[in-house]
Task: inverse folding
């Protein structure tokens, strides 16, 4: 029964996520690019490449390096300041999940469900997982944590690959073939299981708390999909996430209690800072909410149906990419566009990531573009 349920999940959720990697309807006409007078300066400072991106891409940013992986299984560490190669490793298989890194170790998952750990450019070990994975592994505290498509959580020792524990929870009939939520808060592992944000003891694999952000709605199992989707936003003790096509919400990680939740449709994760949460809805309306109480601060409609990425908050700016490879810099105070930079014309494939003032953007064609607003 578990195998049948998983196959159903992969088929149904694959159909859903296949059209949700870009977050608008195929029939809706994208908004034309608005005419803007740049309010800030910015430029591309270096470029690099990975293989064409045909899997859920994420970029790891640690210390002074960006760690990226292409679909062909090549993993690279690039110096944030100038894009110079620190190390390169080829795991020899195509990937299903992006790279996770703590600065030393880097972990990826292949299409054959193999978890591969790299230590400073050398493959250290490989372990086979029981089910597919779409979320980048979390590497923290000399451990590797993996969230599989059926929302099991597996923990491995980073040094030798020993399985430490596995957390299995009763699940929904279908799960979403899209990267879920996995992260950390102090000494607590944070994972998304269905519409619940769950705090887990990383040493034992036991549940410390749960808080539901969304509620399943609809007349069939596909419509009722409400899994939490990454990326998650952490601001101090507040954790915020999106429940797929259902809601946005924030949780107090110290108490494990829901602070607020709003019924807002959407398919991609969130970004933010200590004061505001940013996200696009299913039609790519970009909005800002007060992170303390969920009140709307502004809504911007200049990007309707432009298939936005999840947002990055940097300084006084919100950064999003779109389906034509444009990167938009938006004022955090007003939602007005401040700057637009272009890449290679293919869709921006992952949430932009920042180290200091350097922002790295990856495109579907494998282009890596490092940008600096000024």
Result:
């Amino acid at each position: 029964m578990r195998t049948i349920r998983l196959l159903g999940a992969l088929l149904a959720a694959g159909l859903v996520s296949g059209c949700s990697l870009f977050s608008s309807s195929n029939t809706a006409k994208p908004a034309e690019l608005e005419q803007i007078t740049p309010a800030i300066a910015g430029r591309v400072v270096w470029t690099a490449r990975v293989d064409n991106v045909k899997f859920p891409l994420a970029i790891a940013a640690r210390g002074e390096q960006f760690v990226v992986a292409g679909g062909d299984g090549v993993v690279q560490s690039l110096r944030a300041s100038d894009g110079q190669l620190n190390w390169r490793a080829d795991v020899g298989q195509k990937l299903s999940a992006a790279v996770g890194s703590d600065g030393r170790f880097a972990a990826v998952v292949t299409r054959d469900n193999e978890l591969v750990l790299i230590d400073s450019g050398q493959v250290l070990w490989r372990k086979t997982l029981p089910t597919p994975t779409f979320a980048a592994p979390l590497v923290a505290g000399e451990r590797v944590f993996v969230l599989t498509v059926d929302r099991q959580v597996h923990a491995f020792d980073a040094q030798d690959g020993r399985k430490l524990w596995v957390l299995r929870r009763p699940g929904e009939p279908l799960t979403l073939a899209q990267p879920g939520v996995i992260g950390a808060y102090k000494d607590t592992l944070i994972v998304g299981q269905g519409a619940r944000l769950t705090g887990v003891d990383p040493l034992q694999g036991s549940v410390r708390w749960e808080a539901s952000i969304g509620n399943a709605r609809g007349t069939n199992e596909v419509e009722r999909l409400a899994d939490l989707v990454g990326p998650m936003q952490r601001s101090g003790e507040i954790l915020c996430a999106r429940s797929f096509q259902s809601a946005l919400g924030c949780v107090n990680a110290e108490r494990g209690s829901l602070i607020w939740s709003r019924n807002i449709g959407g398919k991609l994760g969130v970004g933010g800072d200590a004061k505001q949460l940013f996200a696009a809805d299913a039609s790519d309306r970009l909005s800002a909410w007060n992170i303390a109480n969920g009140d709307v601060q502004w809504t911007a409609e200049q990007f309707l149906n432009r298939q936005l990425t999840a947002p990055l908050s940097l300084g006084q700016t919100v950064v999003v990419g779109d389906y034509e490879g444009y990167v938009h810099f938006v004022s955090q105070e007003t939602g007005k566009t401040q700057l637009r930079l272009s890449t290679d014309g293919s869709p921006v494939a992952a949430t932009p990531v920042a180290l200091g003032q350097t922002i790295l953007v990856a495109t579907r064609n494998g282009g890596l573009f490092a940008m600096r607003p000024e």
Remarks:
- The mean pLDDT is 90.
- The first helix runs from residue 2 to 20.
- The first strand starts at residue 42 and ends at 49.
- Residues 360 and 370 are 4 Å apart (CA to CA).
